[in-house]
Amino acid sequence: MRFTRYARTLVGGFLLALLLLLAGAAPASAHTKLDTAEPADGSTAQGLVEEIVLTYTLPVTPLGEAVEVTGPDGAVPVEVTQSDDGTVLTATPAEPLADGEYTVDWNVAAEDGHPLDGTVVFAVTGAAPAQEPAEPDASEEPSPEPAPDADAGATAAEEDDETAAGFAAVVSRLAGAAVLWGALVAGGGMLFAALVLRGRDREDVPTVLTAVRWVGLLALVAVLLRLAARAVVVAQGEISAAWTPSALRDALTGDTALVLGLQAAGALAVLVGARRTLAGSWLAVVGALLLGTGIVLDGHSRSVGPHWLVVATDVAHLLAAAAWVGGVVMVGVVLRRRRRDARPLDAGLLGSRFAVLATGSITLVGLAGVALTVEILDRPSQLWETSWGLFLLAKVAVVAVVAAIGAYQHFRVVPMLQAPGHGARRAHKAASLLQRGAGHETGFMVVVVLLTAWLVAASVHD
């Protein structure tokens, strides 16, 4: 049967793509990460240590204190400077470090605006002995001991900040997923209106453009929420940073200002520009392009090379995904509106036209996805050794489920819609199946977008 042959071809193509991915993944040329530390992590420095030098593979932007040093006696005040075009951070303590173990916590942003942090631990031995403290004058009153709960209070405050920062990071990723969903549905919806809704189906164009307007609002709110959440993350859990102008400015480091600016402008243009006709919705088309540009520049396209190839592949991936995701959503929207208005569902031409568009989109999504993964991964084993790779495999599995549902729609449901002589009842049943299948696909696609947002925000080394 045709569906069985298609399923075998789909599985075979998936396995071939995975094989190519495992066999052909070459080292990515440009990941932003800590390259070296002096003193090195886990080392023991002999003699005086007058500075701590952190060298990164690409220029970074310091966040907050940038470098915090903790020694045997607590926090060590340091002066942080940047050099070598932003790739080197130097932390200079007021006095050379005495013997003992030291922890260095660093916090920076990559060129694409993603916050990065890490810890370096080293020991110092053989340094000049610290000056002995002067004997206290017996006549002087001893200093009062700190309140016993002072340290406990400070620790609790730090834990609260860590919890707030973690929650804000989750909110930021969810907001990023909402922006991505808005871009895919808005752009794909307008493609659906232009390529699928022809002839009598054109009367449903206003319905599609109304849905596009709503996802524009969703994306705009999500961009603002993402900025506020990012400000809290950059401020290391300080909740008030979400509405403090200076903290919001600090959150717009690196390319983040450009990325969020493009996304906000695009979402606003989609919201106000979607009218009742495609010709009258030219501003919404521009908005969808701005949204897409902001998404392409947000993530690994700025930190992985060669840049031109990654950007071109990312554009193809986003465009194909928009045609697929937006089309599936709009099939469900149109059929639901027809059912609510008690109109004939007439889904035969609708289903067949979209099936052609979806088939090409699925193919391009798969090819572009493999190419992007090859460029991003340092080595194939990162697919199962890192959380990033495991999330990618989970995404591929969900995409495969969506593709299987689409295959059933294309080879079983659409032929039922096109078959002559089966009567209105069978056509109505097939249209109901098409609508139900679109709903299932939409649900799984939401999961795919959530996984994609996590992958974009995360480091491949996680």
Structure description:
This protein has eleven helices and nine strands. The two termini are 44 Å apart. It has a five-stranded mixed sheet with strand order 2-9-8-4-5, with no helix packed on it. Strands 1-3-7-6 form a four-stranded antiparallel sheet, with no helix packed on it. The protein has helices spanning 2-24, 150-195, 205-234, 245-251, 256-273, 282-296, 307-340, 348-376, 382-385, 387-418, 423-457, and strands spanning 34-38, 44-46, 52-56, 61-71, 74-76, 78-83, 88-93, 100-109, 115-125. Helix content is 59%, strand content 13%. It has two domains: 34-127, Immunoglobulin-like (Sandwich), CATH 2.60.40; 161-457. It has 462 residues and is α+β, with helices and mostly antiparallel strands. Mean pLDDT is 80; it is low at 1-30.
User: What share of the residues lie within helices?
Assistant: 55-70%
Q: By helix and strand content, what is the structural category?
A: alpha+beta
Distance between the amino and carboxyl termini: 44 Å
Number of helices: 11
> Total domains, how many?
2
Short synopsis of the structure:
The chain is an alpha+beta fold and 462 residues long.
Features:
single chain, 462 residues, alpha+beta, Immunoglobulin-like, 2 domains, five-stranded mixed β-sheet, four-stranded antiparallel β-sheet, 11 helices, 59% helix
Give the secondary structure arrangement, pairings included.
Blueprint: H1 2-24, E1 34-38, E2 44-46, E3 52-56, E4 61-71, E5 74-76, E6 78-83, E7 88-93, E8 100-109, E9 115-125, H2 150-195, H3 205-234, H4 245-251, H5 256-273, H6 282-296, H7 307-340, H8 348-376, H9 382-385, H10 387-418, H11 423-457
Parallel strand pairs: 2-9
Antiparallel strand pairs: 1-3, 3-7, 4-5, 4-8, 6-7, 8-9
